[in-house]
Amino acid sequence: MTMHSILFARFRLKALSLLFAAVLWLFVMLETGDEHEFAVKLKPVNTASGFTVAINPPELKARLGGVRALLLRQQLIGLTVEIDLSQRDAGALTLKSSDSHLQVVPGLKLLALSPGSLEIIISQQK
């Protein structure tokens, strides 16, 4: 038998087997559980005109757990928390980090959120 006849004998069956193996591998890889850490962007909203806002730290870290396919979807969407400053005047403000405003893809679980608090400094522009 020649090398050509060995490689191309029952070619359709070999190609089908390879396709089945690839689909099975993708299914297993995307359905297994995992954890991933995401940066949470903080966005101040409803700030009075003439004021500037400084947030320390500028972003939070959220550790999420779930299946890889959902973690990948969350990575594409990203995480953002809007901080409403409509009733705030100039000065310093400390807020506790909370998951109540964090919109996570259904099926994922928030495992940790750090740091525990945010310092927001609102100052009047000169």
Q: Can you characterise this structure?
A:
- There is one protein chain.
- By secondary structure, this protein is an alpha+beta fold.
- It folds into two domains: 1-31; 32-124, Beta Complex (RNA Polymerase Alpha Subunit, Chain A, domain 2), CATH 2.170.120.30.
- The protein is built from three helices and seven strands; from the N terminus they run ααβββαββββ.
- It has helices spanning 3-8, 11-31, 68-77; strands at 33-45, 51-56, 59-67, 79-84, 91-96, 109-114, 117-124.
- The strands form two sheets. It has a four-stranded mixed beta sheet with strand order 4-1-3-6. Strands 2-7-5 form a three-stranded antiparallel beta sheet, with no helix packed on it.
- The protein is rod-shaped.
- The relative contact order is 0.22.
- The model has no long low-confidence stretch (mean pLDDT 87).
Output the radius of gyration: 25 Å
Strand proportion, as a percent range, falls in 35-45%
Distance between the termini: 87 Å
Q: How many domains make up the 3D coordinates?
A: 2
The biggest beta sheet is recorded as: 4 strands, mixed
